[in-house]
Every structure is written in C-alpha cells, then in structure tokens.
Amino acid sequence: MKYKNIKGMLHNLYHSFMESLHHLTCGEGRAIDELCNLLDRSEHDLISFDFHNGVSIPGTHSDEVMNLFRAYSDGYVDLLLAHRLKKEKLQYVMFTIRKGKSAYKFKVEALDDRGFSHEYS
What we know:
By secondary structure, the chain is an alpha+beta fold. Helices cover 40% and strands 29% of the residues. The chain has helices at 5-23, 31-41, 63-73, 76-82; strands at 25-26, 29-30, 46-50, 55-57, 90-99, 104-112, 117-120. The strands form two sheets. Strands 4-3-5-6-7 form a five-stranded antiparallel β-sheet, with helices on one face. A hairpin with a 4-residue loop joins strand 6 and strand 7. The longest helix has 19 residues, at 5-23. It is globular, with a radius of gyration of 14 Å.
C-alpha cells in the first residue's frame, strides 16, 4: 500500500460525494439541502459520516439521509482498491459538514494505521 495515495482518494471521495449530494433528491429537495436543514435544526454544529466504519455522528438522521450514506458507502471499498489502498491500514475516513457563521464547511479526513492524519477540503 502507498500511503501517498490517501490524499488522492480523499480528493475523489470529497468531489464524488459532494456531487452525489447535489444531484440526488432527499425528501422534497436535494440531499445537500436536507443535510444543511438537518444541521440547522440540530443542537450539534457538525454532521459526520464515517465511510470506513459505516456510522454517522450524530446518529439522528432521517431514513432518506441514511439510505443515501449507505448507498454511497457500498462503493467505498472499490474506491480504496482503485487507489491501491488497504482498508485495514486506515482507522477512519470521515466526511464532515460543519456549521459556520456565514456558510457550511465541508471536509474529508482519514487517519492511517501509523497515526498520521490526512485531510482534504
């Protein structure tokens, strides 16, 4: 496994998941709007999806949002293989949406088995 490929995988995960969120519908509108509205109504300042471990934080999302996350997660292992990465060498791969003062901030990050953190936003 080449650890240098983690950054490229994060780049591709970020852009492909963001594109999915913009184009897929969830409820009455786009999935990205549903997530931002959910965040606005929440007492939390962020929503995270851990593709590596298959969990969301906080775990209080609508069924439609969780179905979208699960559907996208199905291709996660294929994405790792395409970048010549091994799942067992990563501890987590997290996509996070954070509430900002004037805008939402999006990032994807990973922690490898050596303890190194990798990020793309």
